[in-house]
Amino acid sequence: MPRILDAAARDRAVIDAAWQVIARAGITALTVRRVAAQAGLAPSSLRYTFPSQAVVREKAIIAVSQNIAGRVAALPQDIDGRSWARAALLELLPLDQQRRLEMEVFLALGTAALTDETLQPLWQATDAVVRDVCARAIQAAGGEAGPHLDRLHALVDGLAFHLLVRPDQQDGWAQAVIDREMDGLL
Length: 186
Description:
Blueprint: H1 7-25, H2 32-39, H3 53-73, H4 81-90, H5 97-113, H6 120-140, H7 145-165, H8 172-185
Helix pairs in contact: 1-2, 1-3, 1-5, 3-5, 3-6, 4-6, 4-8, 5-6, 6-7, 7-8
């Protein structure tokens, strides 16, 4: 029996299902029918808000940027700049199951964006959110974003990738790299 959800909860369930399909079977397996089945919904119930595979992909990448922005916005504002910077940068790394899933989706959709003109600006906007967090972290730590931004952005992206493809490694090393980078900014 199909679940009855309000529109926002249903949309979130569809996005979560899309992320699961991407992580489990890859971007080519992402179909409206498969996502509906994963979400426990009838495919016809997605007709208006998720009518095509392209729309599902677009909303999936938008959800990545919204999640990142939401986590960073939820950080305590009453902590010192360096602590806030460290916490913000760690929010960009796949250090738990949810962020790992998010990173898998981000990379899969980033690869798809190389050949999908409609997905490119959405992926670039999500990457801009990551870059903005890096810039804000540098400023919070007392540095100048200009000379350090490219390096920190590349470092965070590289750490995230390594954490994703080498799940057997402990994540403490990545946190230590972030700490050393913060030391270098000061």
